[in-house]
Amino acid sequence: MTDMQTPESEDWVSVYTLTGDTYAEMVKEALENAEIPCTLQRSDLSTTFGTHSQTLLNEVMVLVPADLAEAALVCIEGIVGEVEG
User: Fold this and answer.
1) Averaged over 35-51, what is the pLDDT?
2) Which DSSP string do the residues of 14-60 spell out, in sequence order?
3) Confidence band (pLDDT; 50, 70, 90) for 22?
4) Neighbours of 59 (CB within 10 A)
5) 53-58, Cβ contacts within 8 angstroms, sequence gap of 24 or more
6) Could you give the strand order of the β-sheet that contains 12-19, starting from the edge strand earlier in sequence?
7) First CA to last CA distance, the chain
8) What is residue 62's three-state secondary structure?
9) Rounded-to-integer distance, Cα 67 and Cα 73, Å
């Protein structure tokens, strides 16, 4: 994240959920390049079992400030294709 922003400091929302760290990190980098602060929240199961691959246990939610959610979805759509919402 940039400028020391955290989900606790403002209203953040989940805009997309991916399976696997690789795609999640790609989305995060793209959002940050578009100057959209974001953070990744991994599922409890992936944290507990230490899965860092493309398994079903490794769901990763992409969180952004609520006022940038639409812009984030447009950016994500450019990476993963059509986003349901």
Assistant:
1) 74
2) EEEEEESHHHHHHHHHHHHHTT---EEEE-HHHHHHT--SSSTT-EE
3) confident
4) 17
5) 53/20, 53/21, 54/19, 54/20, 54/22, 55/19, 55/20, 56/19, 58/19, 58/20, 58/21
6) 12-19, 59-65, 39-42
7) 24
8) strand
9) 12
- SS3 assignment, position 67: helix
Reference 35, options 85, 81, 71; nearest CA is 71
Amino acid at 76: I
The reported pTM is: 0.72
Q: What is the mean pLDDT of the chain?
A: 79
The residue with greater pLDDT, 10 or 18, is: 18
